């Protein structure tokens, strides 16, 4: 944990008692609405300093306006993504690729990886995605009239799609779900153990695909070249780990927040069930209203940004859940309108680091909602239970027990 004293260069009047980690609505709360709680920052100044706004307790500047976030995220020379977050937890120093690289290195890897998750590739994956969603939902509905959506559907679904992407069967699904949970939600020791296990698995898979190539992601990576040379082992790790972590909690919590919303809003639930053609547009609105990712950048030099004296080394937060509730960008931002058009949300970020997996994520979410609504009748939150929400770098929901008895 680092000290969260406010640095001397931050004017006291720019400090605000707000944090995606420590504010009350960000704690694990029954029936909480962390997105609405965050939206209140728009009543205040467009940029402020939060003294404790990362998992390890660092202070960050907080950019609230969507327009300012877009400007900042484009300026990668001043606002760097280089942090080695995953590796530093292991006492090492290598980047997640391409997430923690800045241009020009970022562009080299991004162009290499773009085709792997292009709309065309995602279309080819779609039958497998649908088949997984159907299998999980059928299993749930065959055995009960209620379930914990996060445990029984959302998380295993997201992990299973990652396994398909790697060219692996679901044989070890439970093991991978366990690794993912420990890595993303375990305590310090569990998290580090899971990180080491995942690295060992990626190394092993890379070695196997070098010996016996297959038609899959890892074979592509071990055979790929950047700048005319093969990838180094650490680069392969940086790509493999990122693809594992990037698509788990993000997709699972999006499905969780969407189904929680529909459980509480039976009219919208019925609308999508009777007119499934509306699901694509509705999913965009739910991505906007329930955005989950806070992006962090590090200043590479001193700069005054919209009146804030940012100094080299300062952390800056561009939280998608804040930008996507900006009243200057969206009419009635706290109203969820499943037919909202012209929805320029930034749930998948903006600029060079725009989510590489957004096409896949969108299809996963829409397919899961379509299949759930066509198979599960009128559902609600089970009486006597309350979903628990929490804040952080990725907002989450747990214990979402739905009932359709
Ligand atoms: C609803 C689901 C998802 C959301 C909301 C989401 C959101 C984001 C955001 C906000 C970023 C930018 C992070 C930053 O710049 O600091 C990002 C980057 C990234 N995402 Fe996603 N993501 C989702 C699903 C996925 C999936 C399914 C995959 C892969 C299979 C994926 C792979 C990536 C990668 C590789 C990057 C780094 C891109 C780069 O640095 O150029 N994401 N995502």
UniProtKB/TrEMBL annotation:
- Family annotation (Pfam families): p450
Q: Name the CDD domains on file.
A: P450cam-like (cd11035)
Q: Name one GO molecular function term.
A: iron ion binding
Carries keyword Protein transport?
no
Q: What is its EC number?
A: 1.14.14.-
The UniProt record lists the keyword Iron-sulfur: no
Report the protein name in the record.
Putative cytochrome P450 127A1
The protein's organism comes out as: Rhizobium mesoamericanum STM3625
């Amino acid at each position: 944990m680092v000290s969260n004293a406010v640095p001397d260069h931050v004017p006291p009047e720019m400090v605000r008692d707000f944090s995606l980690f420590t504010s009350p609505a960000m704690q694990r709360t029954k029936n909480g609405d962390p997105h609405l709680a965050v939206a209140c920052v728009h009543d205040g100044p467009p940029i402020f300093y939060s003294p404790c706004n990362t998992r390890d307790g660092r202070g960050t500047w907080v950019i609230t306006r969507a327009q300012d976030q877009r400007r900042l995220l484009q300026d990668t020379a001043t606002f760097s993504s280089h942090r080695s977050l995953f590796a530093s937890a292991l006492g090492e120093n290598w980047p997640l690729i391409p997430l923690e690289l800045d241009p020009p290195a970022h562009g080299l890897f991004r162009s290499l990886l773009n085709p792997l998750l292009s709309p065309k590739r995602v279309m080819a994956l779609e039958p497998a995605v649908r088949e997984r969603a159907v299998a999980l939902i059928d299993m749930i509905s065959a055995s009960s009239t209620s379930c914990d959506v996060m445990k029984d559907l959302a998380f295993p679904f997201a992990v299973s799609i990652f396994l398909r992407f790697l060219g692996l069967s679901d044989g070890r699904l439970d093991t991978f779900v366990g690794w993912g949970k420990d890595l993303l939600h375990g305590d310090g020791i569990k998290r580090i153990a899971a990180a080491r296990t995942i690295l060992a698995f990626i190394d092993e898979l890379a070695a196997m695909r070098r010996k016996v190539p297959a038609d899959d992601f890892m074979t592509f990576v071990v055979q790929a070249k950047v700048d005319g040379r093969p990838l180094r082992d650490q680069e392969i790790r940086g790509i493999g780990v990122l693809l594992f972590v990037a698509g788990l909690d993000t997709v699972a919590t999006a499905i969780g927040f969407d189904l929680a919303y529909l459980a509480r809003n039976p009219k919208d639930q019925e609308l999508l069930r009777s007119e499934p053609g509306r699901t694509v547009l509705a999913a965009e609105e739910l991505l906007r209203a329930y955005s989950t990712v806070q992006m962090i950048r590090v200043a590479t030099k001193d700069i005054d940004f919209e009146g804030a004296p940012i100094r080299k080394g300062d952390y800056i937060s561009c939280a998608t859940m804040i930008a996507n509730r900006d009243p200057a960008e969206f009419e009635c931002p706290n109203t969820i309108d499943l037919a909202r058009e012209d929805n320029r949300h930034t749930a998948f970020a903006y600029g060079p680091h725009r989510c590489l997996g957004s096409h896949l994520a969108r299809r996963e979410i829409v397919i899961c909602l379509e299949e759930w609504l066509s198979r599960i009748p009128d559902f609600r939150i089970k009486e006597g239970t309350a979903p628990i929400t929490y804040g952080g770098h990725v907002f989450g929901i747990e214990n979402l027990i739905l009932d359709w008895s």
